[in-house]
Amino acid sequence: MDIKEGKEKFLQSWGALGSSWGINRTMAQIHALLLVSPEALSADDVIEDLKISRGNANMNLRALIDWGLVYKELKPGERKEFFVAEKDMWEVIKCIIIQRKKKELEPMIRVLDDLASVEANDEKSEEFVRVIKDIRLFSNKADSTLETLIKADSNWFMGTFLKMIK
Description:
- The protein is mainly alpha-helical.
- The protein has two domains: 3-85, Orthogonal Bundle (Arc Repressor Mutant, subunit A); 89-165.
- It has helices at residues 3-18, 25-36, 43-50, 54-67, 89-115, 123-151, 154-165; strands at 41-42, 70-73, 82-85.
- α3 (43-50) crosses α4 and α5 (89-115) packs antiparallel against α6 (123-151).
- The model has no long low-confidence stretch (mean pLDDT 90).
C-alpha cells in the first residue's frame, strides 16, 4: 500500500470512528487530515483534500476548535487562517472525554437527580425508585472516574491501564 492509499484508508476509518465519539463523519475526517499533516492546513487545503464545501469545512473546523482538538495557527505574511490538530493522543482522548461527558453523562445525571425525589408507595414505584437509584449510583461513579482520568497525566493512566490488563 502506498502513502496515498494509506492516508485515504486512515481518513475513511477515522471518519467512521468519529460517529462513535459523537461527531459527524466529516468533522472526524477533517481531524484525521490535520492529524497526519506535517504542517498547518488552510480551510482551502481541507476543502481540496476532502472535496467538501466551504461551509461544511468552516463549520466543522469551528466545532473541532470548540472541542479543543484543533487550533488556529498564524503564518507571517498570510491572511488565511491555518489549522493544526492536537497531536498528543492523551490530550485528544481527554478532549473527547470532556465533550462526551458534558453532552451525554452530565445531562443524564441531572435527570436522575430530579428523579431521586420520586416516592415509592407501591411495588411498581418501588421498582422504579430502585432502578433509578442504581443507575444514578453507577452514573455518579462513572462521572467521578472520568474526572479522575481527565486530571491524570498519561504516565499514570498508562501504568494503571497496563496493570489492569496483566
